[in-house]
Amino acid sequence: MAEQAAPQNPAQNTTSTAGSDLLMIACSETDANIYYASHFLAPDAFIYFQAKGRSYLLMSDLEVDRARAQSKVDVVLSYSDYEARAKSEGIKAPGLADVVHTFMKEQAIQEWTVPANFPLQYGDALRQHGYTLNIKNDPFFPKRVLKTPEEVAAIRITQEAVEEVIGEAFERIRQAEIKEGLIYYEGQALSSESLRNFLHLRLMEKGYLGQHTIIACGRDACDPHNEGSGPLRANESIIFDIFPRSIESRYFADMSRTVVKGRPSDPLKRLYDTVLEGQELGIRNVRKGKNGLEIHSEILAYFEKQGYATGKVEGRMQGFFHGTGHGIGLDIHEPPRIGKVDHFLEEGEVVTVEPGLYYPEIGAVRIEDMVLVTAEGCRNLTTHPKTFVIP
Amino acid sequence: MAEQAAPQNPAQNTTSTAGSDLLMIACSETDANIYYASHFLAPDAFIYFQAKGRSYLLMSDLEVDRARAQSKVDVVLSYSDYEARAKSEGIKAPGLADVVHTFMKEQAIQEWTVPANFPLQYGDALRQHGYTLNIKNDPFFPKRVLKTPEEVAAIRITQEAVEEVIGEAFERIRQAEIKEGLIYYEGQALSSESLRNFLHLRLMEKGYLGQHTIIACGRDACDPHNEGSGPLRANESIIFDIFPRSIESRYFADMSRTVVKGRPSDPLKRLYDTVLEGQELGIRNVRKGKNGLEIHSEILAYFEKQGYATGKVEGRMQGFFHGTGHGIGLDIHEPPRIGKVDHFLEEGEVVTVEPGLYYPEIGAVRIEDMVLVTAEGCRNLTTHPKTFVIP
């Protein structure tokens, strides 16, 4: 799924000193850093410490036993034990920061590194207690960016499910008939909604959670995050952008394909060929040490050279106005970015390469693969063919 | 789904002054406040202002046109326009806080109210720019707690799907045969996983997203958030706790039922009757003006009187060690809480009432309905029968 070209990152406004004593307070269902560190899933926020090389969770009575059984941290502590200690030290109704403070005093550590999204409320309260909090930008855990073989396998397994179900969807389009410009499968006009439901059900049957899958046709597709709605039309480009997560491993995969049922116009054919050439150029450029900004700029320059300009026309963005790619793993969009920012690729990064071109008068095309950065180049984790025309 | 009895809330550590000029920077896919305010769903964080009574989004090139078409705010502004303005004012590489600052200067507002989970990184950067940020605890939007008739209807529609699919699951258990202590349906032993998959698929077919549905048996169920695994056993209590969201409206519903296939032991029967009596006591107590702390304490006292103590036994929590209930809406757990904290119920709140008792030697029971607080009492939004024994 496309991401903005220049992440809105205030790096210059934040501290860059980062020690090894870490604190997070977050919900692992929505915060991949705390999940990565704890391997514990819970519906409400909980507290994670890394102190003097050991990892800790501070858990409510409701979660403490399950955390002991399921999490991968060194020590699971009881929140209510520390709350009782805070009370015994004279605090009448200890708040979370008081309880966290009780643990921190015990560790005799004054300076903690927290993620950029650390809640301001707790930040203020802990600073009132006298602690120094150093904010560390993502990647909070640099290792999260460099995928282990197990993580690459998990992403690839999710991608296999993607390829299987998208193959089934394309087979429906292949078997379909064109009547009055619409696409009929087994007597019903295929729509963005009906195909999306089909894909999400097939994914769930296999143990994958698909949400917001984009199946967008014609002008809808010119807005890269428009999910699409209504009947799909023949002879127009249809963007499929599908990015489910494995319910078991929690790793995402991400792939886009653009197809036409019937016959594309000549300008649309040329648009497709240009995006495909741009995407292949991008993939050829991926290797350890290469600057993502250059990869992005080269594609943009290639598009411009072919006559496809990027910018506002009548108040709307046209051309190639998102990033070339993004890291993927426990988050659908995670570092690194391949876009309008410097990033020197490292071995073990898994990134998407997904340029697109969007012109309401012609159509929209986006093509996306996931690749693993290697020393010499990259390994494409996507094996699905790039077929434009489905007769 | 059960929540901790006393939310870990550091209210005493935060500012209580809250003006009407609001700022949020969050991802609406995971942050219900920014979704509530914007009605715009996006996979990455974006910026919301409420300034002098008008609401604004500041959106990247990738999302700006879609936000104009889909969001419900008064004005959608282009992030890159403000970024360009910041550059023209001499900032070489403006970060997000610089861009936000450009908008704030234009508004000539020095003091902003932000939610408790506002990212510390942006909080620090904006304070460096000279702004006063007042943190407002949840409910950030007090109106979010008081459901409109449309919101109650959305919750009730989700609940209808819950009742339909859970009815189908119970029908499978009813039709099943007991062989060597296990529960066989159409020749297969029913397991937590197989029934969970069945429920999640049926929900998705209807347009609902079920995740982490609890189907836990015997000792698994004594850990209230254990999802359950392995074959379900006859004559033991099985907790079903199901809390999907509508993909269309994004509103949740939440229900728990406890059943036994076959014959429960006498102690388990008595445990069930006690929880049911406690839950009915709780529901009878719900009305405008009543303190949730009292509702919780009365149930706890009733359980104690019946001989069911709460506390640690051999290092594990037993008894009734979670809250009685929680608000529900765009989040599965949202204010208010009915637990170990004061909260005087207001008309229009939708809360769960879900006491439970957990003893590894006997079994686990939790029963949960959702109710709408009214002036005289409450309206139960849950109509599913409470059947304990499935013969």
Describe this structure in words.
The structure is a homodimer of 391-residue chains. Chain A is an alpha+beta fold and 391 residues long. Chain A is built from 10 helices and 24 strands. The first copy, chain A, has helices spanning 32-38, 64-70, 79-88, 96-107, 120-128, 142-145, 149-175, 192-206, 266-285, 292-305, and strands spanning 22-26, 46-51, 54-59, 75-78, 111-115, 132-136, 177-179, 182-185, 188-189, 208-209, 214-217, 237-242, 245-246, 255-261, 311-313, 316-318, 325-327, 334-338, 350-353, 356-359, 363-366, 369-373, 378-380, 389-390. In chain A, the strands form 9 sheets. In chain A, strands 1-2-3-4 form a 4-stranded mixed beta sheet. In chain A, strands 11-12-14-24 form a 4-stranded mixed beta sheet, with helices on one face. In chain A, helix 3 packs across helix 4 (96-107), helix 7 (149-175) packs across helix 8 (192-206) and helix 9 (266-285) packs antiparallel against helix 10 (292-305). Residues 10-16 of chain A have low confidence and may be disordered. At the A-B interface, helix 2, helix 4, helix 5 and helix 8 of A face helix 2, helix 4, helix 5 and helix 8 of B.
CATH class of the largest domain in chain A: Alpha Beta
**Integer count of domains of chain A:** 2
Give the mean pLDDT of chain A. Answer: 95
The CATH H-level superfamily of the largest domain in chain A is Creatinase/methionine aminopeptidase superfamily
Q: What fraction, in percent, of the residue positions of chain A are helical? A: 25-40%
> Helix segment count of chain A?
10
Strand order of the largest sheet of chain A: 1-2-3-4
